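Exam revision sheet. Question 4 asks you to relate a sequence to its structure. Input first:
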Amino acid sequence: MFSESLKEDLYHCLKCGMCQQNCPTFRATRREYFAPRGRVQIIKHYVEGDTLLSPVFRDAIMSCTLCDACAATCPSGVRIDHVFRTMRSELARAFGPGLAKRALFSILRNRSLMRTGAALGHAGQRLIVGHGWPPWRIGNIRFSRFPRLNARPFGKTIGDQVPARGKRVGRVLYFTGCATELFNENVGKAVVAVLSSLGFEVIVPADQVCCGAPVFLAGFVQESAPNIRTNLRVLDRDGFDAVVVDCATCGAALKKEIPRVVEELGNDPSAALRVAGKVRDVSEIVAERIGTLPSALKRGSRITVTYHDPCHLARGMGVTKEPRTILDSLPNVRLVEMSDAGACCGGAGSYQFENVDLSHRITSRKMQIIEETGASVVATGCPGCQLTLAGNLEPSRGIEVVHTVQLLARSLFGV
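Answer key, structure tokens:
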């Protein structure tokens, strides 16, 4: 599956080690086996036929969080991100998905099945709450610290269309993603309320499905095709100014990954490229028009906030300034930058449940950095990061983790 140009990337690696300084797995272990440079050399030996695929080989590649910090810092311009994703596809073909991933992929392809599962999960959570939380953990997160499932899917709660407040300045499609649809309805409500206050009519397509990132980033490209086709049909429309996301992973998938995946599948990427050209994180749109809101922003008790840059938002979509612009505009917020704000939090989707020990080492470093700021609130732009940070911060510290737009909504509406 390695193209000739991608094979050339393997030989452009100078082994300089620049990638290692920002690699979360190398910093956690100090082992070459867990460094981008080491992984590149392992892959090169495989491409040259000097080594075979094995469980040890697979562990070396799959221990990467796909944070893309290595590709961003490589002085030779090696497309390490493409190399690692292609190698994951090779491994997927060789080893298959396994029973757990087969079940997950089936759920992610079927919106009705996903909603049914979420409804059963919500009922189960309510039952457990009534009898006290058991001391279970999933990965490194206590069961009691997982977000509660929405009582109803967000799309059904909010409806297909929310009109602009006052004069309409534009129309946007809101791609809610699985997290807002099933868990984070408070984030979704904040996004819709803020966008409509800014003059945008918000359309929430009823037939959107999971973006497919959990599937193709695991290497199972072909299995992600049904989701990609459905979403391109839903989102490739005229008459809209943007496709808005509140999830960094969904945004990076639609904007950066899916056009590449479509080409890899041998299909015409035109629709994927048109959609990619319209995809914008909600913070981008809000930051552009934040100057229209000063008179509406309410002052309240001053809080100290720090901001965590999600990997997929900062490196996948190139969005770093906009969330800070929003936070700086809030009269009750004192923004304090944490050191190494763009370092991976160790969540990386299902990574934290499949690489529990390594994820814990990466996350522990991030927890220490956050606590050193003295902030009472951590803002971010990724539901996966929210889950990891909120689930691992010590409850006694009383640090809240929210989406950036939630803080703006509080300042606007007092909720």
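Marking note for examiners. The first strand starts at residue 137 and ends at 138.
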